[in-house]
C-alpha cells in the first residue's frame, strides 16, 4: 500500500508534471481564498483581505518546490536540472566537449569493433539447436580432424558417447543446370548430417541415413537457402529437378533452413550432398582405403550425461583397437574434443589468442582515453575552482557539485559512446559483407547483436565514471574561502599529481601499442621480401577444373599436356608448368614418409610428414624455385619409369641427415596397401608452403605422370602486362574446351590467403597504434600547454630576471619530458612482452629486433616533440612586460 | 498572538494526522483545526503545511480528494487511511511516553535524587 502510494506520487510528478503543478497551485489559491473569506468576516475589504492572506501564506514558490520534493520528484528533477546545466556548460566550451567526445568515440568504437569480432567468432554459439553439447573431433598433435571413410564408420558405430556422429568434407564441383558448368561449393555430408544436427528442411526434404546404400548411391542435392535464392531465384518448383554435378545427374530434393550453412563458422557451402557420392565428384577419394584421410571433420552431440572427458576416453579406446587391427594405417591415433565451428583448435586457438590480445589492446586504448579525459577534466576542474568555490560559499553542497561534474562526464561518455558505436556498426556491416577470398565462400560473420550494444554502453558508462571521478579529490579539498580570497593560480606543489600519473600511464600504454604495431608492420614488410621458395611475380595461375568438365581417367593426362602446350604457344609466355595445388594457398597434401631401410610402416614411426605436390616438367623454372642439385622431371618420368621425386633441403635433412648428397638416395611411403620406393633425382631450396610464419617444412615434388590427378593449376610465367596475358590465356583455354571452368589470378593475388592473417594483424595493430599515438599526443600536449599557461607569470618573471631560452624550456617542459621518457621505457618493456603473442601471426615477430626498438623510441620521441612544440613556442614567446602589466 | 509556541521539529506531521483524524479537512481547515484543538497555542506557518501534507500522502498515511468546502469553494480534502490511523496511534503513544518522561525529569527535585 505504502509503496504504491509512493510510486503513484512519484509517477504523478514525473508523468503529469504540469497537471500536478496546476493542482498544487489551485490548492494554494483555495487556501488563500478561504483565509481571505475569514479575514473578510473580520471587516476587511475583499481586496485587502486577499492581499493579507497572500502575505500570511508566505513564499508560494518555495513551498511548491518543497512540495514537489515531498512528492518524490526530487531525484529525477535534480538530475534533469544537472543535465540541463551540464549541457549549457558543455556548449560553452565546444572545443573541450568535441575533443572529449571524439576521443571517447574512437576508443569506444575500437572496443565495440574488436568485441563484436570476438563475439561473432568466438563467444557467440553456433546457430544450431542444442549447440552446447555439439563437439568436433580433432587430433591433439596437429589440431586437424581428417579421417578416412572406414575410420569414420567405425567411430560412428562403435562409440557409446555420441548421439550420432556425422562427418563431412568440402569439394568443388561443376553445377550444370543446362548450359555451362559453374563451379560451386559442395558440402559432402554423411546421411545422418541433418538429423544429428536437428536441422529441418525449408522446402522439400533433407537426406537421411536411410538414403545411403554404398558408393555413389544417393544422388541428392539439398540447396542452401542463400544459394537457392541467388542461383534459382527462390523458385519453389525446383524440388525434384535433375541437374548435373561434374556431369553426373543429381536430384534437388530440398532447401535447408535460412541461415543454416553447416557448422563451420566461416564457410557457406552452396549445397549439401551425401558423403557416399564423394568419389564420383572427386576421384582422389574413396570409401574403402583406411589410410586415405579425406573427411574434413567429424562432429556430433554428446549423449545426455556424458562428459567430454568420458567421450575422449571412449574415442581413444576405439582408436587403440583400430591401430591394433590396422597397424599400417592407424598408428597411435589420439582424439580430443573441441568446438567444431572454427575447425577445433586449428583456427580456434590462434584466433582466440589473437582476438584476446587485440581486445586487451583495445581496452588499453580505452584506458588511455580515460586517463586522457581524466586529466582534461581535472584541468578543467582546476580552472573552474573559482566557480566551485563560489557555489560552495553560496550554500551548494559538495555532493551536489560532484554530482553535476559526474553528470557532465556521463553526458560526454554517452554521446561519445553513441558516436563510437555508430562508427563501429558501419565498420562491422562492411566486415560482414566482406569476402576476403573472392573464389571461396568465406565470410566473417560479425554483425553486431544486443551483446555488442550492451558492452559498448557499459564501457561508455564505466569510462565516464572513471574520468569523471578524477577531479573528485580536487573538489573535496577545495577551500572556498581561500580560493575566493587568493585566486586560482595559488596552489601548486612540486610533487606528482594524479594528472601526472595518469599521463605517465597513458604514455606507457601508447608505447605498448606503438611497439606492437611496429612489430606487426616489420613482420609484414619482411614477409613481403621473404624467400618463399618461389617467385610469385609475373606469374599467372589458372585453376582448371578438369573434373567439373567431366574429364576422367585416361582423358585427364592428355588434356593437361594439351593445355601446357597451348599455354607455351601464347606470345610473351616464358615458362609454363602445372601443379596440383600451389604453395601458400589455402591447403596442402601431405604424406608420411619413411627411410629407405624402414620395415615398420606405422604412422608414428614415419621419418617425417612431408608436404607433396604433383608437378609437370618445367615447374621449378616456371615457379622460380632454385634447383640446387640433380635434375628436373621430364615427360619420360611417367607411369612406366621408376618412381622419382624432387625434394627440398629440409626433406633431405630429415630423411638423410644431410642435404649435400640427397640426389640418388631413396625413401618409402605407403599408398593404399602398397609400399612405394621413390628415388630422389633433384634437390630444391626450402620454401613456405602453408603459412608465411612457418618453420622450414619438408616437401617433395612428384612428376604429374606418375601420380595422375585432375586438380590442375597452370603456372604461367610471362613478361608483359598480366591483365592482357590473363585474357590471352583464357581465350586459349576456351579454344581447347569452352565448357571448362577456369579461375585466373596472379600468383600474388592467390597468396592473399597466406598473407591474410599477418595483413589483418598488421592493419588491426597499426590502427590501434595510431589511435594510441593520437591519444598520447593530445595527452602530452594538453599537459604541457596547461602547465605553460599556469606558469606564464612565473616564466615571465624568470625571463625578466634574465633566464635563457633553454632554462625557460626546461622549466616549462621538464615534467612532460620526464613523464614521456619514463612512460615510454615502461611501455617498451611491456610491449616486448606483449609481442610474443604476435609470433603466431606475424612473420618472424621479434620485438627485440633493433629496428623495432629504435623505431619505437623514435616514434615516442617524435610524438613528444610534436606534442610539446606548440606549448614550447608559447613559453618562448612570453613577453614579460606584457605579462606583468596584465596581471 | 503572543502566546503561540513554536512547533518542535517532527510534531507537525503528528498534529496534521490528529487534526484529520477528527474528520476530513481541506488544507486551510487543517490549519484552523490545529489552532482550535491546541487552544490557539500552536502556530503553523501557513505555506509550510503543504509540503507536510504531500509527504503524508506519499507515505500513504493520508488520501486526498477534491470536494466543495463550507464556503462553497472548490478545495482538496484530506482524510486518514488505515495506515495513517495506525501511525497516529503509535506516534501518540510515543509522544505521551516522551512527554511524561520529560515532565518527570523536569519535575525532579533535589531531595529525590
| Average residue pLDDT of chain B | 84
Largest sheet of chain B: 3 strands, antiparallel
Distance between the termini of chain A: 65 Å
Helix residue percentage of chain B: 40-55%
Task: Write down the Rg of chain B.
Answer: 16 Å
Low-confidence stretches of chain B: none
Helix/strand/pairing class of chain A, anyone? alpha+beta
Beta-strand content of chain A: 15-25%
State Rg of chain A.
37 Å
In CATH terms, what is the fold-level topology of chain B? Arc Repressor Mutant, subunit A
CATH superfamily of chain B: Winged helix-like DNA-binding domain superfamily/Winged helix DNA-binding domain
List keywords for this structure.
heterodimer; A: 887 residues; 6-stranded mixed β-barrel; 21 strands; 15% strand; B: 113 residues; Arc Repressor Mutant, subunit A; 3-stranded antiparallel sheet; 3 strands; elongated
What does this entry look like structurally?
- The complex is a heterodimer of chains A (887) and B (113).
- Chain A has 887 residues and is α+β, with helices and mostly antiparallel strands.
- Chain A has 4 domains: 2-72, no CATH class; 131-338, no CATH class; 354-489 and 497-528 and 755-886, no CATH class; 539-751, no CATH class.
- Chain A is 52% helix and 15% strand.
- In chain A, the strands form 3 sheets. In chain A, strands 2-3-8-5-7-6 form a 6-stranded mixed β-barrel.
- In chain A, strand 6 and strand 7 (248-256) form a beta hairpin.
- In chain A, helix 2 crosses helix 3 (46-57), helix 6 (94-123) packs across helix 14 (398-433) and helix 25 (792-800) crosses helix 28 (880-886).
- The radius of gyration of chain A is 37 Å and the shape is elongated.
- Chain B is of the alpha+beta class and 113 residues long.
- Chain B has one domain (11-112): Arc Repressor Mutant, subunit A (Orthogonal Bundle), CATH 1.10.10.10.
- Chain B contains 4 helices and 3 strands, in the order αβααββα.
- In chain B, a hairpin with a 5-residue loop joins strand 2 and strand 3 (74-80).
- Chain B is elongated.
- The N and C termini of chain B lie far apart (39 Å).
- Classes of the chains: A alpha+beta (887), B alpha+beta (113).
Amino acid at each position: 500500500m505504502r509503496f504504491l502510494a509512493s510510486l503513484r506520487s512519484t509517477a504523478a510528478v514525473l508523468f503529469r508534471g504540469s497537471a500536478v503543478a496546476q493542482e498544487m497551485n489551485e490548492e494554494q489559491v483555495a487556501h488563500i481564498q478561504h483565509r481571505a473569506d475569514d479575514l473578510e468576516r473580520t471587516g476587511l475589504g475583499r481586496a485587502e483581505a486577499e492581499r493579507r492572506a497572500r502575505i500570511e501564506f508566505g513564499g508560494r514558490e518555495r513551498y511548491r518546490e518543497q512540495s514537489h520534493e515531498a512528492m518524490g520528484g526530487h531525484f529525477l528533477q535534480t538530475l534533469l536540472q544537472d543535465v540541463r546545466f551540464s549541457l549549457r556548460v558543455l556548449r560553452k566550451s565546444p572545443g573541450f566537449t568535441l575533443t572529449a567526445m571524439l576521443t571517447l568515440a574512437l576508443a569506444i568504437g575500437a572496443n565495440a569493433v574488436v568485441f563484436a569480432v570476438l563475439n561473432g567468432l568466438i563467444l557467440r554459439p553456433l546457430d544450431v539447436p542444442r549447440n552446447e553439447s555439439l563437439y568436433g573431433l580433432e587430433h591433439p598433435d596437429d589440431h586437424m580432424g581428417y579421417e578416412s571413410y572406414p575410420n569414420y564408420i567405425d567411430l560412428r558405430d562403435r562409440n557409446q558417447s555420441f548421439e550420432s556422429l556425422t562427418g563431412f568434407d568440402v569439394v568443388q564441383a561443376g553445377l550444370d543446370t543446362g548450359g555451362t558448368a559453374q563451379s560451386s561449393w559442395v558440402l559432402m555430408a554423411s546421411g545422418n548430417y541433418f538429423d544429428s544436427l536437428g536441422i529441418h528442411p525449408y522446402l522439400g526434404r533433407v537426406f537421411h541415413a536411410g538414403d545411403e546404400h554404398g558408393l555413389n548411391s544417393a544422388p541428392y542435392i539439398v540447396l542452401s537457402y542463400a544459394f537457392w535464392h541467388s542461383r534459382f531465384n527462390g523458385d519453389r518448383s525446383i524440388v525434384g529437378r535433375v541437374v548435373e554435378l561434374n556431369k553426373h545427374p543429381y536430384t534437388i530434393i530440398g532447401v535447408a533452413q535460412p541461415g543454416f550453412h553447416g557448422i563451420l563458422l566461416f564457410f557457406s557451402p552452396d549445397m549439401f550432398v551425401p558423403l557416399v557420392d564423394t568419389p564420383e565428384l572427386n576421384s582422389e577419394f574413396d570409401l574403402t582405403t583406411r589410410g586415405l584421410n579425406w573427411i574434413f571433420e567429424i562432429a556430433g552431440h554428446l549423449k545426455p550425461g556424458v562428459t567430454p572427458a568420458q567421450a575422449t576416453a571412449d574415442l581413444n579406446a576405439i582408436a587403440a583397437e583400430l591401430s591394433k587391427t590396422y597397424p599400417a594405417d592407424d598408428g597411435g591415433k589420439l582424439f580430443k574434443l573441441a568446438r567444431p565451428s572454427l575447425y577445433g583448435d586449428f583456427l580456434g586457438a590462434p584466433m582466440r589468442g589473437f582476438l584476446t590480445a587485440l581486445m586487451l589492446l583495445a581496452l588499453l586504448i580505452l584506458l588511455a582515453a580515460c586517463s586522457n579525459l581524466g586529466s582534461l577534466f581535472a584541468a578543467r576542474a582546476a580552472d573552474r575552482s573559482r566557480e566551485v568555490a563560489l557555489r560552495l560559499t553560496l550554500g551548494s553542497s559538495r555532493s551536489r557539485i560532484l554530482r553535476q561534474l559526474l553528470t557532465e562526464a556521463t553526458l560526454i561518455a554517452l554521446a561519445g559512446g553513441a558516436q563510437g558505436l555508430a562508427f563501429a556498426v558501419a565498420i562491422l556491416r562492411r566486415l560482414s559483407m566482406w569476402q576476403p577470398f573472392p573464389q571461396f565462400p568465406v565470410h566473417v560473420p560479425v554483425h553486431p547483436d544486443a551483446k555488442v550494444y550492451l558492452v559498448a554502453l557499459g564501457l561508455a558508462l564505466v569510462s565516464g565514471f572513471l574520468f569523471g571521478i578524477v577531479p573528485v579529490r580536487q573538489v573535496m579539498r577545495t577551500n572556498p574561502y581561500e580560493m575566493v580570497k587568493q585566486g586560482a593560480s595559488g596552489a601548486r606543489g612540486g610533487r606528482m599529481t594524479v594528472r601526472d600519473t595518469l599521463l605517465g600511464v597513458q604514455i606507457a600504454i601508447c608505447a605498448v601499442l606503438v611497439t606492437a604495431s611496429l612489430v606487426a608492420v616489420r613482420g609484414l614488410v619482411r614477409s613481403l621480401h621473404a624467400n618463399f621458395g618461389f617467385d610469385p611475380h609475373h606469374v599467372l595461375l589458372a585453376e582448371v577444373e578438369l573434373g567439373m568438365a567431366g574429364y576422367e581417367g585416361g582423358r585427364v593426362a592428355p588434356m593437361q599436356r594439351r593445355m601446357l602446350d597451348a599455354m607455351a604457344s601464347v606470345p610473351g609466355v616464358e615458362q609454363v608448368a602445372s601443379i596440383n595445388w600451389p604453395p601458400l594457398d589455402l591447403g596442402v597434401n601431405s604424406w608420411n614418409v619413411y627411410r629407405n631401410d624402414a620395415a615398420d610402416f606405422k604412422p608414428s614411426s614415419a621419418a617425417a610428414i612431408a608436404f607433396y605436390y604433383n608437378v609437370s616438367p618445367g615447374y621449378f623454372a616456371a615457379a622460380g624455385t632454385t634447383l640446387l642439385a640433380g635434375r628436373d622431371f621430364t615427360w619420360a618420368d611417367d607411369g612406366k619409369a621408376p618412381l622419382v621425386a624432387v625434394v627440398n633441403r629440409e626433406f633431405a635433412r630429415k630423411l638423410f641427415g644431410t642435404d649435400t648428397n640427397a640426389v640418388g638416395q631413396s625413401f618409402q611411403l605407403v599408398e593404399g596397401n602398397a609400399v612405394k620406393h621413390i628415388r630422389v633425382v633433384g634437390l630444391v631450396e626450402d620454401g613456405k608452403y602453408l603459412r608465411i610464419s612457418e618453420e622450414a617444412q619438408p616437401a617433395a615434388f612428384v612428376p604429374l605422370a606418375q601420380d595422375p590427378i585432375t586438380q590442375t593449376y597452370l603456372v604461367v610465367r610471362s613478361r608483359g602486362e598480366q591483365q592482357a596475358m590473363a585474357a590471352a590465356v583464357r581465350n586459349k583455354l576456351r579454344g581447347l574446351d569452352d565448357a571448362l571452368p577456369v579461375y585466373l589470378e596472379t600468383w600474388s593475388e592467390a597468396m592473399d590467403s597466406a598473407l591474410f592473417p599477418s595483413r589483418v594483424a598488421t592493419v588491426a595493430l597499426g590502427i590501434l597504434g595510431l589511435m594510441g599515438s593520437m591519444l598520447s599526443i593530445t595527452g602530452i600536449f594538453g599537459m604541457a600547454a596547461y602547465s605553460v599557461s599556469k606558469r606564464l607569470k612565473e616564466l615571465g618573471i624568470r625571463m625578466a630576471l634574465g633566464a635563457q631560452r633553454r632554462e625557460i624550456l626546461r622549466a616549462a617542459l621538464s615534467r612532460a619530458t620526464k613523464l614521456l621518457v619514463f612512460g615510454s621505457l615502461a611501455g617498451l618493456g611491456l610491449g616486448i612482452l606483449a609481442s610474443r603473442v604476435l609470433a603466431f601471426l606475424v612473420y618472424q615477430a621479434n620485438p627485440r629486433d633493433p629496428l623495432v626498438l629504435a623505431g619505437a623510441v623514435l616514434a615516442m620521441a617524435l610524438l613528444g616533440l610534436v606534442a610539446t612544440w606548440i606549448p614550447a613556442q608559447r613559453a618562448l614567446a612570453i613577453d614579460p612586460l606584457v605579462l606583468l602589466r596584465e596581471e | 498572538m503572543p502566546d503561540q509556541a513554536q512547533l518542535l521539529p517532527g510534531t507537525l506531521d503528528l498534529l496534521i494526522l490528529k487534526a484529520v483524524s477528527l474528520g476530513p479537512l481541506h488544507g486551510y481547515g487543517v490549519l484552523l483545526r490545529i489552532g482550535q484543538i491546541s487552544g490557539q497555542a500552536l502556530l503553523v506557518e501557513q505555506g509550510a503545511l503543504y509540503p507536510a501534507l504531500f509527504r503524508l500522502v506519499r507515505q500513504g498515511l493520508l488520501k486526498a480528494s477534491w470536494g466543495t468546502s463550507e464556503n462553497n469553494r472548490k478545495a482538496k480534502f484530506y482524510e486518514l487511511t488505515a495506515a495513517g490511523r495506525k501511525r497516529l496511534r503509535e506516534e501518540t503513544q510515543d509522544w505521551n511516553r516522551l512527554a511524561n518522561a520529560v515532565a518527570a525529569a523536569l519535575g525532579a527535585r533535589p531531595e529525590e535524587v
